Amino acid sequence: SSELTQDPAVSVALGQTVRITCQGDSLRGCYASWYQQKPGQAPILLIFYKNNRPSGIPDRFSGSSSGGTASLTITGAQAEDEADYYCNSRDSSGRGIFGGGTKLTVL
Amino acid sequence: QVQLQESGPGLVKPSETLSLTCTVSGGPVSSGSYYWSWIRQPPGKGLEWIGYIYYSGSTKYNPSLKSRVTMSIDTSKNQFSLKLSSVTAADTAVYSCARASSGTYYYDTSGYFFLDIWGQGTMVTVSS
Questions:
Q1: What is residue A4's DSSP assignment?
Q2: In chain B, whose CA is at the least distance from the CA of A5?
Q3: pLDDT beyond 90 at B105
Q4: What's the pLDDT tens digit per position in B25-40?
Q5: CB neighbours of B3 closer than 8 A, spacing ≥ 6?
Q6: What separation in angstroms does the CA of B5 have from each of A55, B20, B91, B97, B120?
Q7: Which residues of B touch A28 (CB under 8 A)?
Q8: Contact A71/A21 with Cβ under 8 angstroms?
């Protein structure tokens, strides 16, 4: 299958830890990357290749994977972390795939 | 630093061809390290990968759009382009270009794919 499945919505209390998951067969052959998108803005790369963060991304964002499941963890969620989060990978043919996105609400 | 900027008509009539260009500044599209990608996002919906083009001209497209998509690259202008034919209202979306990295490290059995630089996106509406 060339699909990535994410929970549509997740909530977290301010300062607490939240995990956003992404499932798909493609994740057995390619690490997930993770993106944050706020309304009206372009997505921003948060995590790539296992658990690497681009310059400027806070270290409260981390990634992990096991088999066909990848996870994005936010440790100590901040109000500004309220956004949509997307996972991304490629299938066995090299074509890109996005998950459906998870809307994170910070309470 | 590398920046990407989309350009093209914001309104396209049904059955016509959508044409967009992405201009890259701060680095060459002829770099063999990257894949130049297009992604779209219908209003209120998620991201959809359209495809990418390599500096050599080789392409990979989303199977669901493959019959209607053509991508090209112009290294002399440092641009790459998207054409989507026979558009309908379902093609109304924000279209974004992005730089992708894709590969596998020799020491790892799993590969990597990520889009590290994005354009701001351009809204294209399909309507008569």
A1: B
A2: B46
A3: no
A4: 999 999 899 999 999 9
A5: B24, B25, B26, B117, B119
A6: 21, 10, 20, 7, 7
A7: 110
A8: yes
List, for residues A36-76, the tens digit of each pLDDT value. Answer: 999 999 999 999 998 999 999 999 999 999 989 999 999 99
Chain A interface includes B37 (CB < 8 A): yes
Q: Which of these, B116, B115, B113, B119, lies nearest to B25 by C-alpha position?
A: B119
Whole-number pLDDT of residue B70: 98
Distance CA A13, CA A105 (A): 8
Residue B106: what pLDDT?
80
Task: Give per-residue pLDDT as tens, B44-93.
Answer: 999 999 999 999 999 999 999 999 999 999 999 999 999 999 999 999 99
Query: How many angstroms separate the CA atoms of B90 and B50, rounded?
Result: 14
Would you state the structure tokens that stand for residue A48, as one six-digit string? 């790539």
Q: Return the closest-CA partner of residue B39 out of B122, B113, B128.
A: B122
Residues of chain B with Cβ-Cβ distance to A51 below 8 Å are none
Chain B residues in contact with A37 by the CB 8 A cut-off are: 47
* Nearest-by-CA chain A residue for B48: A98
Q: Identify the pLDDT of residue A70.
A: 97
Give A11→chain B minimum CA distance, Å. 19
Beta-carbon neighbour count of residue A15 at 10 Å? 11
Mention every residue, 6+ apart, whose C-beta is less than 8 A from residue A33: A45, A47, A48, A49, A87, A88, A89, B112, B113, B114, B115
pLDDT of A1 reads 52
